[in-house]
Amino acid sequence: MATITTPITDSTHSPIVTINAATTINEKLIPSTFPQWRAQFEALLIGYDLIEFVTGKHKFPVIDALNPTASKAANSHWIRQDKLILHAILASTSTTITPLLSACKTSCDAWTTLTRLYAGKSRTRVMQLKEDLTLSNRGSRSVTEFLQGIKVIADELAIIDHPVSDDDLTLYILNGLGVEFRDIAAPIRARETSLKFEELHDLLVNHESYLWQLEQQSATSFVPTANYSHRWRPQSFFNSRQSRWRPPAASPPPRGNTGAPRNGSFNSGQRRFKPKCQWCDQFGHTTKQCPKMTNSDFSANCAASSQRKNHKWLVDSAASHNMTTDLSNMTINSEYDGTDEVVIGDGSGLQVSHTGSLSLKTSNRVFHLRDTLCVPTIHKNLISVHHFTKHNNVFIEFHPTYFLVKDRITGATLLKGECEDGVYPFPEHLPSIKKNITAYVHERTTTDGWHKRLGHPSSKLVNHLIHAFSLPINKNGHSSLCTSCSKNKAHRQPFHTHGLTSNLPLELIYTDVWGPSHDIGINGFKYYVIFVDHYTKYIWLYPMTQKSTVQTIFPQFRNLVENRFNTKIKSLYSDNGGEFIGLKTYLSVHGISHYTTAPHTPQQNGISERRHRHLVETGLTLLTDAHMPLSYWPYAFQTAAYLINRMPTVILNNKSPFELLFNQKPNYLKLKQFGCLCFPLTRPYNKHKLEPKSKPCTFVGYSLSQNAYLCLDSSTDKIITSRHVIFHETQFPFQLTSHSNVSSSPSAGQQSSVSISIPKLFFDPPPPSSPLDMGHEVFTSSDNGPLSAPSPLQVSTPSSPLVFASPVSIQLPAPIELPASIDISASTVPSSEAIRVHKMTTRSMNNIYKLKKSFLVTKHPLPSSLEPTSVTAALADPRWREAMSTELTALMKHNTWTLVSPPLDCNIVGCKWVFRVKRLVDGSVDRFKARLVAKGFNQRPGLDYKETFSPVVKPVTIRTVLTLAVMQGWTLRQLDVNNAFLHGHLTETVYMKQPPEFRNPDYPDHVCCLTKAIYGLKQAPRAWFSALKHALTEFGFLNSKSDSSLFVFHTGSNLAYCLVYVDDLIITCNNSVFVASLVDHLGQKFSIKDLGLLHFFLGVEVIPTAAGLFLTQHKYIRDLLARTNMDGARYVNTPLSTSVPLQLNDGSSSIDSTEYCQVIGALQYLSLTRPDISFAVLNDQMTGDYKVKTLNQ
């Protein structure tokens, strides 16, 4: 209540009001009740006209020099009234908040402090409150309690100027109610008008009452009959898998009187339904209440008993350790194998069963109880003052009637407890003392098991984690040498780092690209790029199919991290690769400094190089330990990055990059062994109820966008993302398919056989690179592209019949080895999928395996014709050896280089072998071509080359000359120049390394001083064109002004045209004798191959007909469709859609511009023979997101 003191004699002053907060404010202020407290206090102050004191409008009076007596009285009056308001504020706050206001001198200061603390308008607080609204759910609370909690959060948002609309508030409430209220939630969602909170409150409370009545009726309506077994099911949508709200038995229904008994028992005329115990098969009680079940029976499936022996914790200054009588109090525990005992007052000892740790949560902070002993025979839970103050950085003050826990640094009171019967128990209302019962236990494993779970880190690091986090461990196990680590972690000594430093995350980012991989990864990945934060050492890894994708990935990465951590990337450190040089404009526009290494000095980017080594070593170790193929390296490397980010390091004072970046400790109990057998819950995706709830899969990593695991389903080649997974960490599915089973023959005359089981690999076009999925939590089955699945094929020797088995193997004679390049998927023998699963009689059911003739021709190349990717593989094939020998012979014949000692301070260009299979129009193999190519990207402009432009013939010129030849009846002659670029002379001095695997044994350290323009040099096309132009002009040809690649000869009656496209020439003339003389002239200058009449030129097939020439690019079209993954696409009559308009924002957010340009360029060239698509292609020069939908169409 409020009282008015005696009025001041000065009539200008209002009476002083005294506020009794104990009677006017119904509850004291705590952090969670600020909106209610503020509403009461504001109403009280407004009622007494004192609100301007706390808002600052009624300020301290200014002294009037003309009337000092009145000014002094006014000042005194203001001070007294303000102090009374300040006292009321302090008296209405709890003991945890009062110390925060001790420094406030006026009521306005106190009011402002409380508003800033509990009604701050910061973006962080708004986001936190909105997240609380989103995650709110009713659980076991009544509807009234649930709605009150929602309303409190909404009021807090309204106080800080972020009110929640009625529609949003309704949506939050309906999402948190649960499935019991879905009958009423559906019509509420379908309403066209908004619902007020009061209306929604009435509807939900009434529906809750109805549900209560319905459950009471269903519970009392069952009457058992003799010799009749009936399983009771709740009516309507209440089934056994859904949680139901049951009011307490002793409480009446929320609304109305349904006639049901209020004491929770039936009357004498009613018979209660008797449940059946699943433990002893007797009626009348449940398994939980079964008298035949001992306490130990629960230990196999439950981590805690349903009731606690004692939940109070007593603060004891004489206890040397924290002690508990109930093991369920501990969050982490392990069995105690020692012989130490707890000595009590009479000298006897009590046995210790477990050791572990737990946490006690309060409204202000969490207190940790480490080194806690579980003593089953003790009667009380004891908190050691020594351990409590040491581990929580606090001190305790004991008073006769209470005790205080205060912060050691600030002295702020963190907790207050009352004295009861001479002891000091912790407050009983602490929510952390009770622990929910879990339906599983953490399996104990050995040190080696944790070594594998954590991704094979060092033993020192494993021991540190086990000790720091009290991880469950089986001490009876012994440590052994990890073979997988020994195979993959041998390395050289490290390099010294440079002097760049950072003080905050994202100030300095290191980046580098790894690849190409010898084994193409799943989804076609050949590279990956990493971004390493210099301050936290955190790694972001993005798999890629091309290096150029870096220019797309980095802007996405920048937007992600800058938005997530609310800071800017200031500097980027990389090498001088073209993928990073292309980012210079982008970095300059966004104000990001770009540091690069010195040329040919990757050691300066040592942090990235060291992360590469760590990632590759860890990833290969994971693959080796799981017996998985190397094609799974993208999943292994991403898992390695996930684990490395969670490994403590000495550089960060034994903190992990994850902990330093996100300011929270990682959850190590979530980790499982990579590649092990797992069973994810697949019931939500079953087609009918009789399907199994799970299927065997292979664990391949952790989701970056969800709190879930990635499981590879070998039967469907899909990735299942699920949190509900059962792991068998001692079994590895790929171990069964990767080992070779060698069976020795019983006699010397019998030949042994080798059984090889090879997984079938499927490659689909790669999806767009994205990390952060990247990592959030809906449990869905995601298809990340068909993956490599262990679905072996069966092939047997010709002497043995085919046998259907699962899995099936390849039976080969022992001396024969299976080449690694053979594509088993091209085999004509049926796979294991030919097992009969239907009534239809197929050819394979009758042991007929001969393919139909219509399927004998395939567009896919035979395994023996695959192009090698390395010189070693090429030298193993005699056909490629012959091709390389032919290339070297041509180089020597043209005196392409001379061997010299490498000069000082010169740029030496590298070289490599390129292998191509040349094919005819029908796709058959023409010849094997090997080419020695210089690495022109190492050349420096102005030093190694100057001009590089070389013209090629235009498509319109080709059509014009062909049309002229058809109209005049002239023949078309085609020539090809062998090793054309070798005929061009260099004007610059260029040094090149000797060819790989073909070094001169007498001069192994010499370099090649080039005299001819070898393939790969930037100026090579221009040098060749200059030589050819000189030869044609010498013969009398003139260069056309409209097209530099067209040469015209017109002397007397002879008229000839020569089209040039690099080393392909087309000649047409009105005189065949002139053409023969021209061919002889060119043959004297160059190595010419006369291909006869024109039939195939630049992907265009030329077919002479009676009406003229028929031009087709069907092979080019097939290759284009195969490259864009549209082999099975159906034809359309119009090249562009006539009904679907293209919008500016159609399609996904971004697309690879390189792929888009390649497709548009290919379609432009295709218009050479397909003028019907010219309009669609030439008018499709679009930019931005508009091009996405066009590419899809």
UniProtKB/TrEMBL annotation:
Region described as Disordered: spans on this chain: 240-271, 773-793
Biased composition (Polar residues): 779-793
GO BP terms, alphabetized: DNA integration
Claim: Ribonucleoprotein is one of the keywords in the record: no
Origin superkingdom: Eukaryota
Keyword Hydrolase found: yes
GO molecular function, one term: aspartic-type endopeptidase activity
Keywords for this protein: Aspartyl protease, Hydrolase, Protease
SUPFAM superfamilies, sorted: DNA/RNA polymerases (SSF56672), Retrovirus zinc finger-like domains (SSF57756), Ribonuclease H-like (SSF53098)
Domain Integrase catalytic intervals: 501-665
PANTHER family reported in the protein's UniProt record: PTHR47481, RETROTRANSPOSON GAG DOMAIN-CONTAINING PROTEIN
The protein's name: Integrase catalytic domain-containing protein
